[in-house]
Amino acid sequence: MPTEITINALITSERKKVWEYYTNPSHITSWNFADPSWHCPAAKVDLVAGGKYFARMEAKDGSFGFDFEAIFDEVKEFQSLSYAMPDGRKVKVQFLDKSPNTEVIVVFDAENENPVEMQKDGWQSILNNFKHYVESN
Fold first, then answer.
1. Which SUPFAM superfamilies does the record match to this protein (predicted)?
2. Taking CA atoms, which of 68, 96, 129, 133 is between 20 and 30 Å from 40?
């Protein structure tokens, strides 16, 4: 059994907007990076079970980049989504209505190459960036 890591953020916004900003490629490219020295120049989302998620993540100086890809297992509009990465690891994202806020909870399977804390910190940084983006727009 892989190690599961949980991160979360309470976002000062209603759930429909949070969902839209999390799943729409035009928004994903504005927040999907852990550090200001990185960016997400491209994203594509086919938001249905069996649909593909794609995001290109790159260092702004061009020194490194990678494609993040997944296939959606389940999509419950405004509530949750789950997907599998090519290596078989699973991710589940919940959008909980805490009116007037929304809590986003992400549970993901850790990979075996990097320490669990490093993975948790990286994913949490991206989620924090998402929170800031939603609350600022």
1. Bet v1-like (SSF55961)
2. 96
